[in-house]
């Protein structure tokens, strides 16, 4: 394996931050407890925060040269921040963590030990409970995992977090995927490698608030499905075939009825129902095709996934 840079550190900790000025100091203090003795770097990726996340990080950096800050020119989303962090990381081991302490730092020593002593390339985590999360959100999240796992070839663990430590080989594999629409949960599964899963109880955010609205999560779910499988297109073909068959049988029935029993004008309600139903299905399928087309369009533009305003 040829690395595209010198490995200068033992561990790189990547923290995507969007408006995390309140949580960052807690995060920093807690993480330091567990990695203080290890040769490490903390890469704070400021994803276009509107608050003073950069200032807070800079203050921490004054006393700790192991902090690297990358600040985006605007909010590009967590996936973009993860990518920027992975590109920047100089560690043999790389770990992704949320800034809000929902990814417990106390697992870090255990993760390092597993990667050093056992034949795994990555240690990932998942939540065994969704305590403290709105019920409706948990419900849709569960549905999403069921649905996506039916459709894609690789498996995404329900409740899996982005909190994961990887060896260099796996990081390079992830970086070799050049797609614009990045769905990390799918990418981690897609690149393969041997992964050990650790479980933990859900923890609530230490400060600040969640950046994920229901609508954002919905878009994220669509990104995941469209990015990793073309099954919806096949389903569209299948639905089309079924409806055509139904239409054909119905046509025979009407013809038969007209020939043998005459054809009094009737059935206006059924006509309306059929037209609206089929119209709806057609639009839905067009929408599905559109999703794929739009993504093809965006990918062909080859725009950068993020733009760095300043690097500290
Ligand atoms: N985040 C980000 N860019 C965004 C949204 C979120 O970098 O556009 C970061 C955020 O600062 C946090 C992590 O991604 O460190 C997870 O976000 P959050 O805690 O809001 O998500 P939740 O835990 O509620 O799913
Ligand atoms: Mg969180």
Structural overview:
The protein has 312 residues and is of the alpha/beta class. It has two domains: 211 residues, Spore Coat Polysaccharide Biosynthesis Protein SpsA, Chain A (Alpha-Beta Complex); 71 residues. Helices cover 50% and strands 17% of the residues. It is built from ten helices and eight strands. It has an eight-stranded mixed beta sheet, with helices on both faces. Helix 1 links the parallel strand 1 and strand 2. Helix 9 packs antiparallel against helix 10. Bound molecules: uridine-5'-diphosphate and magnesium ion.
Helix vs. strand class: alpha/beta
CATH architecture of the largest domain: Alpha-Beta Complex
The CATH superfamily of the largest domain is identified as Spore Coat Polysaccharide Biosynthesis Protein SpsA, Chain A
How much helicity do the residues have?
A: 40-55%
Write the element-wise H/E pattern from the N-terminal end onward: EHEHEHEHEHEHHEHHHE
Sheet-strand content, in percent, reads 15-25%
Outline the low-pLDDT stretches. none
Biggest pleated-sheet summary: 8 strands, mixed
* Average pLDDT for all residues: 87
Task: Report the principal-axis shape.
Answer: elongated
Strand order of the largest sheet: 7-5-6-4-1-2-3-8
Whole-number total of structural domains = 2
Total strands: the figure is: 8
Radius of gyration: 25 Å
How far apart the termini lie comes to: 30 Å
Number of helices in the DSSP assignment = 10
Attached small molecules: uridine-5'-diphosphate, magnesium ion
CATH topology of the largest domain: the name is Spore Coat Polysaccharide Biosynthesis Protein SpsA, Chain A
